[in-house]
Amino acid sequence: xxxxxxxxxxxxxxxxxxxxxxxxxxxxxxxxxxxxxxxxxxxxxxxxxxxxxxxxxxxxxxxxxxxxxxxxxxxxxxxxxxxxxxxxxxxxxxxxxxxxxxxxxxxxxxxxxxxxxxxxxxxxxxxxxxxxxxxxxxxxxxxxxxxxxxxxxxxxxxxxxxxxxxxxxxxxxxxxxxxxxxxxxxxxxxxxxxxxxxxxxxxxxxxxxxxxxxxxxxxxxxxxxxxxxxxxxxxxxxxxxxxxxxxxxxxxxxxxxxxxxxxxxxxxxxxxxxxxxxxxxxxxxxxxxxxxxxxxxxxxxxxxxxxxxxxxxxxxxxxxxxxxxxxxxxxxxxxxxxxxxxxxxxxxxxxxxxxxxxxxxxxxxxxxxxxxxxxxxxxxxxxxxxxxxxxxxxxxxxxxxxxxxxxxxxxxxxxxxxxxxxxxxxxxxxxxxxxxxxxxxxxxxxxxxxxxxxxxxxxxxxxxxxxxxxxxxxxxxxxxxxxxxx
Length: 486
Ligand SMILES: Cc1cc2nc3c(=O)[nH]c(=O)nc-3n(C[C@H](O)[C@H](O)[C@H](O)COP(=O)(O)OP(=O)(O)OC[C@H]3O[C@@H](n4cnc5c(N)ncnc54)[C@H](O)[C@@H]3O)c2cc1C
Fold this sequence. Notes:
Shape: globular
Oligomer: single chain
Largest sheet: 7 strands, mixed
CATH topology of the domain at 3-123 and 285-394: FAD/NAD(P)-binding domain
CATH superfamily of the domain at 3-123 and 285-394: FAD/NAD(P)-binding domain
Low-confidence stretches: none
Number of helices: 9
Radius of gyration: 22 Å
CATH class of the domain at 3-123 and 285-394: Alpha Beta
Distance between the termini: 28 Å
Bound molecules: flavin-adenine dinucleotide
């Protein structure tokens, strides 16, 4: 009987565990280790953050689902890795610490034949003084954060209803942030709610970002093919922001969030501050690097993890100038180069390089959007790695060829809702392929013009709402869940 341990029950890990168990049945063990009792459909946190959904609508308890599927679940966090095992047993192991009420703080050591690391991002609010819910800004990264953001938004709306002008800043809380799409979506939802509440004319809404130009999204922007010809994502976004009267601060690294004031610097050397009554600023993401030792107890963490805490996989991590980076550098199998029974998927794997051109301020601060790893690629990687592991177990061949899912051959759709409601909602739907530009196959823009486009309308909102229901249905492992694509 083989044993697969999956670290993390987010989009990538949950998908991997469900597919692995479905294919392996009772003959083999699938174990999930994750610190939160609930699964969270993170994209819908945007709607929680503007009071259109509750935290309950975007989460559900994991334990009953895993029980039904026959997956062993440990509500715990991984705290250490022993890929060569320990003095008593050469089987790989992971050290965990329980987080549930009954066993909180208790340690345990789990052995594995295959390990799938899907621990997602570590939210590093601490890299910017004063950033985040423990400081002076709010976040929508978790359903709890989003609930707080919604309450803070209600307060500024109440003040506007009393006739007071308010300033709302939404964006990125550090120059090296990723996930610009989420901040973009949130600022448009805020704008929509302010209009609904009849207070928009009393609000100064500002989008503050590390992107070099609007529409960069950490993927270097896009060129859309439309009936009228080609249009860049920058032109497209510019018209959206202008139409809605949202002021934009570009190329910014936030240096501090003080009470009611965000301090930032820009790549042209500008050092400035912006007063606010409400600020939703996303944190930079780092990886959940685990202390890792070999059988002798020697630290080998740098063999498995990059300096930013993400796990190194089958990518080319050689340092090169931006112009020399290529699509070929990106991973295909997500297998660790040092331990072929260890994989990292979703946000947990280390991207080989930025997709957007990185800049810095004269003081040396990064203004370099990190590559996004959104839901679709995260889920697909989880599924593909589960298939690799299942192949190896079923054929009793630990070196059987790995399945592949490269972000240079994979498309992604970003549907940014611009408000909720069956009749009043709308969405900006951006589809691109591939996610990582491939200039060898598409010399002009790096992307396939037939599959890269942007659209705005109510239909996109309906699709986004439908995806909310479908992905929660799927994550709950309801009948036929595996037929719903990642
Ligand atoms: C506000 C917001 C909106 C977004 N909107 C969209 C969208 O519209 N479309 C889209 O495609 N993507 C969107 N994304 C991105 C999407 O949420 C991520 O791509 C996706 O969640 C990544 O999946 P993951 O499994 O890698 O990480 P996660 O889903 O974050 O899962 C990580 C898991 O690891 C667990 N974990 C953490 N530490 C440990 C540890 N030490 N041991 C064990 N487990 C651990 C966590 O508890 C969690 O269960 C959004 C992100 C944010 C923040």
